[in-house]
Amino acid sequence: MSPVRTTPPRPLEVTEVFPELAPFARPAIRLHPRPGSPSVRDSSVGGPLLWPAAEPWPHCEEAHLHVDSGFRQSPTEIRLERRLRERRRPGGPAPTLTPGERALQERNAAWLAERFDDGSPEPAECPVPMLPVAQLFLRDIPLLRPPGRADLLQVLWCPYEHEPDYKPSTALFWRSATEVTDILATPPQPYEADYPGYVPEPCVLAPETITEYPNSLEVGQELQQLLNDWNRWQAAATGVDSSYAEYPREFYDTHLANAPGWKVGGWPPWGRTDPYPRYCAVCEARMLPLLTIASFEWYGGDDGRSWTPQEDQAAAADSHHAGLNPSQPTRVEVGRTDNMQIYICPTSPEHLHTDLIQ
């Protein structure tokens, strides 16, 4: 696990001003991924999976969108380029690969040449090995509701966008960690990624439990009207900045409702579309948010950084260069800086999941 991360206290206790919101409170666990070197026995984002050697690695068999834009990079190449950018300084000389990075680059080039020189079809036309996105152990993330004796959730995706929603296809696996004794040492990886933002950086986690409330679009018109009543905010002596007087609901959504970033449980973010319920294709139960895969851990600007963990506020205030945004530790970008929400059936987590870009 990475060092502790602590969400700052909210500007006010929203249920004291709007007790009508109390029934909507939900627990969520902010994962707080930060770059590191997780092992197969750790909860992680983009890290190695505790995968049985005898179990086939998941491949995506769907049709893949592929435009020959000149982008031809394997996950290894993408991560090596990120290492170089991290070491580059404005006005300084171009960084060079370390001997270990150079060896990795050469092995990757030989691996690619072996596949393309033997008459293999274009990568986008092949079954594509999926990439690890998250591995979550129940011991670290107690909000998980695994089926049976399972205590581990593994999430993978295909690093290509798929029609009609133009997002990576996802796969979920529940398993019992103690039953995995012979571990797959070298999982297959895709020939290339459709977009660098679909290649997560290995990150350790610092889980933190918080309480969330729904986006105002999800609470119904009567409560929306209350949240829009500036007089009520003033009567409660909340000290909310007068810049929100015209749209006080915006203050609620930005600072009091649901947290940004990678998280388990809680309430989903909305905005790209109005909220709409998701129902299980097997039993028709209303599905619940399982995992939010986020492009950013906190929003930009002074207001948007109210969710920035206390331990990260100095870094968030500093300028950054070469894509080294401290609010984007995983380097993931879904839907071009949106969020991917994964939903599961509350009756049976093994029922087919669904996902949505917001």
From TrEMBL:
Family matches, as InterPro entries: YwqG-like_sf
Domain of life where this protein originates: Bacteria
SUPFAM superfamilies the record matches: Hypothetical protein YwqG
Region (Disordered): 81-103, 305-332
Full protein name: DUF1963 domain-containing protein
Origin species: Streptomyces galbus
Lineage of producing organism: Bacteria, Bacillati, Actinomycetota, Actinomycetes, Kitasatosporales
